[in-house]
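Please go through this chain and its backbone structure tokens and walk me through the local backbone shapes. Keep your notes short.
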Amino acid sequence: MTARRHALLLLFLCMNLLFAGCATDRNSKLQRLSRYSPEVLYEEARRALTAHDYQAAVDRLEALSARYNFTPEGRQARLDVIFAYYKLDEKESARDAADTFIKENPRHPSIDYAYYVRGLVDFERTPYKIELWLGGDPEARPPQTARDAIKSFRTVVEEYPTSIYAPDAYQRMIYMRNRLADYELRVANYYMERGAWVAAAQRARQTIEQYDGAPAVEDALRIMIRCYRKLDYTDLADNTLRVFNENFPGDSSEYKLKKRAGVFARFFNRKSSQ
């Protein structure tokens, strides 16, 4: 066995021992905490949350929900632990806790919060800081969990419109929609730069159909017009140009020509009157 394989095996064994030790310590902590009454556990958890000691709060809330799941404190612990995990930056645990709460409490008055935090987790999963540090362009690829975030935020906005989280959820939903549309537009441009006119037109049309209202729609229409002209699809090009002119009259070629002609006319009229 090579030295490298020896080192890898040793590292693997050490990691197993470390995880086993952490699991044992956590189980013993949960057993110790579960000896307290639900009222005492919940009071300690609330104090920990107020003091921003989120790990202590998680320990007590987890023990509370495990030992006293059907008590009022146990049900509230299922909700509070979502927040505690989120503040600890344990996003996967926060999302799992939100999913569990949604499944077990579909009619809970605070279920909008669970959907909102689940959306936040997916919204924040894109590693912007790492990408920028590596010199990458985060807009050059789609947010991996953007659709999941939009789905959660849409649930808050549409099913709980009076929720205090609905306005922020709506803004984040629009932002993610625009990011996805921008990515689709990049792909369409990629195809167009390589002369793949059919693929570019299809991607641009997909952008319009799926992300109506996004700023990228204007450029998607431009791409479709250019692609259809390159393919000699005259009727499609003319129809798309008509749609473009109706929706973006200030950016159409005809509008710009008329505007320019009006400027020239005013200029010459002014000169002639002098």
In short: DSSP finds 13 helices and no strands in the chain. The CA atoms of residues 181 and 212 lie 9 Å apart. Residues 17-23, 129-134, 254-273 have pLDDT under 50 and may be disordered. The two ends are 97 Å apart (CA to CA).
